[in-house]
Design a protein that fits this description.
By secondary structure, the protein is an all-alpha fold. It has two domains: 51 residues; 60 residues, no CATH class. Helix content is 55%, strand content 0%. The chain contains eight helices and no strands. The termini are far apart. The relative contact order is 0.12. GO terms for molecular function: phospholipase activity. This is F-box domain-containing protein.
């Protein structure tokens, strides 16, 4: 099976150079960047590269894809769903807060602000 040219190029980068390139990304862009190809996903598989920090801006399309997925908040008790709202509000991304309210299934309270 032939390998895509962009995957060959990324896999041929020295690890130090690849680290330098991704060093210019916002930490909340890393989990999305990993989707570029298998080589990038393998190289950046640690928790620093796979975790969204909800109190920081998260790209709205990625936030919605995760939190609007069926069952995304099913296992979260009320306190954790409220924490989701608080952290998302702290990021300042209104679109994500709207998604979080829908996903959490609870109303905004004064603690969120």
């Amino acid at each position: 099976m032939p390998v895509a040219p962009q995957q060959l190029q990324w896999s041929q980068l020295l690890p130090e150079l690849a680290d330098k390139v991704v060093g210019y990304l916002d930490p909340n862009e890393m989990p999305i960047f990993r989707l570029v190809n298998k080589a990038a996903a393998a190289q950046f598989r640690g928790p620093d590269h796979t975790t969204f920090r909800l109190s920081q801006p998260v790209p709205p399309h990625a936030f919605a894809a995760h939190w609007l997925a069926p069952g995304a908040t099913r296992g979260l008790p009320l306190g954790r769903r409220r924490q989701l709202l608080c952290l998302t509000a702290a990021s300042g991304v209104v679109a994500n807060l709207e998604v979080a309210v829908r996903a959490a299934g609870c109303l905004l309270t004064f603690e969120v602000y």
